[in-house]
Amino acid sequence: MRVLGIDPGSETTGWGVIEGDSNGHSYRLIEFGCVKLSSAAAFPARLLKISNAIEEVIDRHKPDACAIEEAFYSVNPKVTIKLGQVRGVALLAAERAALIIGEYSPRLVKQTVAGYGNAEKHQVQQMVRVLLSLREVPEPHDAADALAVAICHFHHAGVSQRLAAAAAPAKINPTVAAATRRRA
User: Given 21, 55, 69, 95, which residue is catalytic?
Assistant: First the structure.
């Protein structure tokens, strides 16, 4: 399975692609980067640049899934709204590509990757480095955060799949079931 992780931001949107087994036991880095945006550019132009960049990454790497960080609530409502719009553009690009989409809270991502839901940025970066067997910490932190979201997806999507399989009703041959019924 190949996963595209996205850390949305109105000035810098991080992305990272990792590949691994669906149960989250092993994965490796494919590529990571950021979409850097000029704060002088009009906001709709920034959204277009983010959309184009994410679509290009999807076309180049052909991921199976997209994991995106959920919005956090800022003190400033304008920041929250802009972040929501960036997330919407990223979600639309993933949906257009028919990717499986997973959304994860920043706290869950930190808990999954660093073992602590209030981990600092540098702790998340170091754990991403360790988990992906990288020589150096991924820079900038937006790309490291995107990789952390992708890692989180591997762990939680695998659990969800196993739970769904366990909850699925057992398929029993009706002839066998009738033959093994107890008689009162």
Answer: 69
Tokens of 3: 């996963």
Catalytic residue of the set 11, 31, 142, 145: 142
**Tens-digit pLDDT profile for residues 56-101:** 999 999 999 999 999 876 677 888 899 999 999 999 999 999 999 9
In whole angstroms, what is the distance from residue 138 CA to residue 67 CA? Answer: 18
**Domains plus CATH for the chain?**
2-179 (3.30.420.10)
H or E stretch at 113: helix 106-114
CB 4 within 8 A of CB 67: yes
pLDDT digits (tens, 9 = 90+) for 6-40: 999 989 999 999 998 766 678 899 999 999 999 89
**Is 55 assigned a catalytic role?**
no
The pTM of this model reads 0.84
Q: Answer yes or no: 69 catalytic.
A: yes
Show the DSSP H helices in 20-105 as ranges.
43-61, 77-96
Please indicate whether residue 59 is annotated as part of the active site: no
